[in-house]
Predict the structure.
Amino acid sequence: MIENERDIRHEQVLRAARQMMTAARTAPKGKGIDILEMALIEGEEVRTLSETMVAMVEEHGMKFFLRDAANILSAECIIIIGTREQPQGLNCGHCGSATCAGRTEGTPCALNSIDLGIAIGSACAMAADLRLDTRVMFSAGLAAQRLGWLPGCRSVMAIPVSASSKNPFFDRKSPST
């Protein structure tokens, strides 16, 4: 049997992306409490995410969403990672409030955000070990949050994944409009 790499690349990238999600899941969590959610999207959902990002530009005017919306179409798949909102009860003040009870509604618990960042770092480290092309995207994460793909998550980030001869997520053109 002969397997051409071009014929098996997509399945290999999906397998590797699943390993990235495992790396994110096993990353250390504040107080050992796991409030992360994640999913892998591919195919038509990538196009839906891109279209949502384009539509969001009309609302907020952040034109780099246009560049990112076009850019994610080069991904074999996209991992979305989010955190549910759950104050950890440390009264650490890291969020800007003296106590967890005094935290303003909608202000994220700093530990939740730190946990998300550590998970993203673990996922990207796995991608680097597997020689995958990635980029962490706030824009695509915000669109995934808007679409409700990780119910209950107040902060979502996206990691498009590719295996190509040149990383499509760097050296990108700025939006022309």
About this structure: Residues 5 and 72 are 22 Å apart (CA to CA). The two ends are 50 Å apart (CA to CA).
